[in-house]
Amino acid sequence: MRRLLGGVTLAGLVAGLVMGFAIAPREATQGNVQRIMYLHVPSVWVAYLAFGVVLVASVVYLMRRAEAADRLAHASAEVGVLFTGLTIATGSIWGKPTWGAWWTWDARLTSVSILFVMYLGYLLLRGMIEDRERGARFAAVLGIVAAFNVPLVHFSVYWWRTLHQPPSLMKPGPGTMPDIIVAALLVNFAAFTLLYVYFVTRRARVLRLEAEAEA
Amino acid sequence: MTAGNWGFVVAAYGLAAVVLIAYWRFLVRREKELQGQGSGVSEPQASVSGHPRSEPASRSPLP
Amino acid sequence: MNRRRKFIVGGVVIAGALAYMIYAGVTQSAVYFVTPAELRAAPVPGKAYRLGGMVVPGSLTWEPRSLDLSFTLSDGTATVPVRHKGTPPDLFGEGRGAVLEGSWTADGYFKANLIMAKHSEEYKAPHDKNEAGYRELFKTLRGEGR
Questions:
Q1: Measured between CB atoms, which of A9, A97, A213 is closest to B63?
Q2: Which is higher by pLDDT, B55 or C83?
Q3: What is the pLDDT of residues A144-201, one digit of tens each?
Q4: C127-136 long-range contacts, Cβ below 8 Å, gap at least 24?
Q5: Using the beta-carbon criterion (under 8 Å), do A178 and C125 form an inter-chain contact?
Q6: 3-state SS, residue C135
């Protein structure tokens, strides 16, 4: 089962690369750097998804005290931090040739940095508290509170003046991209979602083995 | 103008590849470690040589 | 004890980073840039501003040898003359958005130290539909540029 998921994920990632580099055209205004988008936007989607899962799993943990829910929250937060970091790094690499700056403190970049650091703090808190049950409870509360950052990041480009452009895909209303670019993005969304599931299930399994080894 | 920009594309994809593969390898290694130090019920064939990583059959496919 | 110290250091680093980002958010992101109309309403010479707007078509002049760049930035209601020394980013151009860091001068123009191109959320395929990515890559590798 896990091998199957791994295989399908790998195939999806390869398909995403083929779509992004061979099928999708060079974007007229930005040129080839636009291809970084096939990495950047699915990464932030995975981060949103991951922190959403942390929120739900944390609520479930507080209600049921199920350790599996706690481990899911922990695993998902770690993968979310990984992909938030990738989002920031790839965005910065894209920003230099496109904007003319690696970094600027506009609302989108500031809010995503806060998101990143808050979940880093979440992971630190998890490692800090020795008492398992107490640590899980604190983490669940933080996991719920920090999730409010996700809409802040996503809507920052509407709520404040920013350098970062508004979304082209994750929004209602008419499209602002040619179908072929949308298709390439969607393939990468699917592949990254599979990669998320693969990583989280494996990480949760490692956490379970760790808990068993301690017991 | 566009010629130099491939460098940025390669840098972004290269960085992502390195990070994702490193995390995947961390998960595989940690899982092996934990299964190795366990009572050996889960995967007995992995410890034939006493070295859990030397058995190609017990390795997971990529990723 | 060692473990504890590690977590304290980590906690301080995270709290510091968070404090700095919130500070940056309040001082910079909340009003990331002012518009030409806002600058015109109360210009303070020598004060650092971030100015955002659209480059007025036909206003752009660039002297490649001296790197003297000048153009007019507009928000639809007011305009501001801008001068800059240097090479602008690729996506900077007439009719496009830009965010400038610099200061208002007593001589009545905006002196830009940094020009950032503001990208729109619109994406377009090039006119030549057959120009797929790998062909472009091979062309670049052969040194043909664009």
A1: A9
A2: C83
A3: 999 999 999 999 998 889 999 888 887 777 778 888 899 999 999 999 999 999 999 9
A4: C127/A28, C129/A25, C131/A25, C131/A26, C132/A22, C132/A23, C132/A24, C132/A25, C133/A20, C133/A21, C133/A22, C133/A23, C133/A24, C133/A25, C133/A26, C133/A32, C133/A35, C134/A21, C134/A22, C136/A26, C136/A32, C136/B2
A5: yes
A6: helix
Rounded Cα distance between C75 and C82, Å, is: 14
Interface list for C 75-134 with A (CB within 8 A): 88-92, 99, 114-127, 129, 131-134
Query: What is the average per-residue pLDDT within C19-25?
Result: 93
Q: Which two tokens stand for residue A5?
A: 């998921």
Q: Mean pLDDT over residues A64-71, rounded?
A: 95
Q: Give yes or no for residue A93 having a pLDDT over 70.
A: yes
Asked if pLDDT for residue A25 goes beyond 70, the answer is yes
CB < 8 Å from B in window 90-149 of A:
90, 93-94, 96-97
pLDDT tens digits along C36-66: 999 999 889 989 999 999 999 999 998 888 8
Per-domain residue ranges for chain B?
1-32+53-63
Give yes or no for B35 touching A (CB within 8 A). yes
Closest chain C residue by Cα to residue A31: C126
- Which chains contact C through at least 3 pairs of Cβ atoms less than 8 Å apart? A, B
Residues 6+ apart with CB under 8 A from A14: none
Q: Do A39 and B13 touch (CB under 8 A)?
A: yes
Per-residue pLDDT, A128: 86
What is the rounded distance in angstroms from the CA atom of residue A186 to the CA atom of residue A194?
Answer: 12
Closest Cα partner for A191 from A41, A14, A24?
A14
Amino acid at position C108, single letter: G
A128 touches chain C (CB under 8 A): yes
Nearest to B9 among A6, A32, A210 (CB): A32
* Chain A residues whose beta carbon lies within 8 Å of the beta carbon of residue C24: 105, 110
Check whether B50 has a pLDDT greater than 70. no
DSSP B56: G
* Joined tokens for residue C7: 């977590």
Q: Shortest CB distance from A100 goes to which of C115, C123, C125? A: C115
Three-state DSSP state, A192: helix
| Amino acid at site C144 | E
